[in-house]
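Problem 12. The chain below contains 471 residues. Write out its predicted structure in token notation.
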Amino acid sequence: MPRKASTQWEFGELFPDKDLRRVLTVSELNTSIRRILEERIGTVWVGGEVTNLRVQASGHAYFSLKDESSQLNCVLFRGTPVAGRQLLDNGMKLLIEAELTVYEPRGQYQLIVQTMELQGVGRLQVAFEKLKRELAAAGYFDPGRKRIIPAFPQKIGLVTSPTGAAIRDVLHAIRRRHPGLEIVLSPCRVQGDGAGEEIAEAIATLNLWSASRHLPGSGALDLILITRGGGSLEDLWAFNERVVADAILKSYLPVVSAVGHEIDFTISDLVADLRAATPTAGAELITEKAVASRTVIRDAVATIHRRSRQHLLGLMGQLRELSHRLGRGSPLRLVRDRMQAVDDVRSRVLRRINLRLRELEVSAQAAVVRHRRTHPLQRLLRHQKAVDAAIKRGTRAFNSRLRSLNTATVAALDRLRLLSPANTLARGYSITTEERGSIVRQADQLKAGDRVSTQVAKGIFVSQVIQTDRS
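Solution.
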């Protein structure tokens, strides 16, 4: 160990002897920590929420368990036999039994999962899958044992809650599609503890009630509809219980299961003879044939009416044709045809006579016209008309030329008036001349004292130049 200082100026050995220090490698330190954790803590139970889940191609699953403030790395090796491995997902609540250790290559401690218990929905999902496998192995889902749903049921049994939305949906759909369908309700709870037993008892009760009315016309049931609205897996759990599956299997009446929404599947759906996605869909499947038959009947009635009318129209056409043939061969028809032929001959003869008379009349009128044209008086009259026409044409031409000259004269006077100095003076202008009579156009033509005359529109005045400005 370092030597102690004897005075204040002696500091002893600043560094101890290297042989007295223990230096660990990283691997040695990680190994030591792993041994301490495994020996002093070992196997522990830890609960938390799954996050950062990664499943490698090797089959090993890596994830973290977290709570409000921390998280732990976990690994589930492929060979570890745990239930619900395939259901593992981010956000799932999980309770694990694991060995606390250190992954030495990265120097991080982690949990090696030995046992895993799903919490909440995960637990129910595991139970669902387990019961599903058991029932499948026992033949509950065998298609060969499924019964045919009656196409035209007259009376059905309904297993559901009397206060839920499902019964309202079912009744509304049936009243709309098949109002004559009778419904026998066996009420029960569809959620909560003991609901599964109540559902099974309701199914059995309807079977017994229907069996007591097995005689024709006594009102036996044709099938049973079990239904409820949508909800979470916990809400629908009553329909995933073994007792309900047994009741459906033992029912001698066909069973339709309409539980939840389209995405919900329950054990009752798998065991039942027919599965419907929703309560409304269940009612529609039951009444499907009845609705289709009404459509067929309605179309058949319309087809009968159409074909009957077509047949009747065909018969009426045949009757008209026969009547027409009979009319053409009757004696009265022959006499009428002969009378009409005589009238046609008479009309043709009269038309020819009238035509010939008109031709003769036209020829006579043409001869009269030719005679009048060759008479001297007629020629004189024609010449007189020609002279009158020439005089009229000359008069019209003279008047037109006179109007043109008059228009040209007026236009020339207008132009002359526009160019006249008097017209310019009338617009406010004036003409100034020197004493010699020359028109003043520039100021430098004049000097102070010169007399000038200025002509305006009306009159002339004389003035004397006082000053000139040549700018």
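Discussion. The chain has a mean pLDDT of 83. Students who got a different answer should revisit the alignment rule from Section 12.3.
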